[in-house]
Write a structure and sequence with these properties.
Layout: H1 11-23, H2 42-46, H3 70-74, E1 81-87, H4 92-100, H5 105-119, E2 125-129, H6 134-140, H7 144-156, E3 159-160, E4 165-167, H8 179-186, E5 190-192, E6 200-208, H9 212-223, E7 228-236
Parallel strand pairs: 1-7, 2-3, 2-6, 6-7
Antiparallel strand pairs: 4-5
Helix pairs in contact: 4-5, 5-7
């Protein structure tokens, strides 16, 4: 399948990508079978690793009884609550890769719709996608967090501020670093373009691993006046 060039970040290119996907036969992204509406067949959708109902209410880390995890009790993160649909595991990881590296933007809309159902209500919140550094955005052509955040905001009837938060440092990929170095890697990586005084923010990303990147973004938002920050991610990586 041909992939649109780096102009995918423009509204026209996003519309073309959506039209192309709508005209193609509906086949499951995981098994290739028919009957995928809009992304997966019922069987593959049933195989996705759902986040356990018992999880830390602050960071969504699975816990035995739904209690706060030890880290959040010892050193709470700057975001106040986290929502996740799935565990980051097979075969959900293949859908994330299809979005980020295969330019399957229909997956982002499906993720956004699912998150909207999990989060509602969130009246008065401003939706802010996690930003990519400009160089990373140029290479990928679009910001997957933004593609998830827009349909999420529409379904919740909220405003989406796609350029309110900037990533000013092109840091090393968090997955390439040991856990102890991830917080320092993203320290000071974000800047805000506006005053968020008194605002409640819904910060959107695709995957949370340790939470260090979301934590630093939430810290920046609160330094600029945000009173509440919720994190909304498609998938939560559980501790080994």
């Amino acid at each position: 399948m041909p992939i649109l060039p780096h102009a995918l970040s423009t509204p026209v290119a996003r519309a073309l990508a959506a039209t192309r996907e709508a005209l193609l036969p509906a086949s499951c992204l995981l098994c290739g079978g028919d009957g995928a509406r809009p992304v997966l067949c019922p069987g593959c959708q049933g195989d996705l690793p759902l986040l356990p109902s018992a999880h830390c209410p602050r960071c969504a880390e699975p816990t035995p009884y739904g209690e706060h995890c030890g880290r959040c009790l010892h050193a709470p993160l700057h975001f106040d609550r986290a929502f996740a649909l799935f565990l980051y595991d097979f075969p959900l990881d293949r859908l994330i890769h299809a979005l980020k590296y295969g330019h399957r933007l229909g997956v982002a809309a499906w993720f956004g719709a699912g998150l909207a159902e999990a989060i509602a209500p969130a009246a008065g919140f401003l939706v802010v996608p996690m930003p990519l550094h400009p160089q990373r955005l140029k290479e990928r052509g679009f910001n997957q967090a933004g593609e998830i955040a827009r349909p999420l905001a529409r379904r919740l009837g909220l405003s989406c501020a796609s350029e309110a938060l900037l990533r000013t440092r092109d840091t090393a990929a968090q997955a390439s670093l040991p856990l102890a170095k991830r917080t320092g890697n993203v320290r000071g990586a974000f800047e805000c373009r506006q005053d968020f005084s008194g605002r409640s923010i819904l910060l959107v990303d695709d995957v949370m691993t340790t939470g260090a990147t979301l934590d630093e973004a939430a810290r920046s938002l609160k330094l600029h006046g945000a009173t509440t920050v919720w994190a909304a991610v498609v998938a939560r990586a559980a501790k080994p």
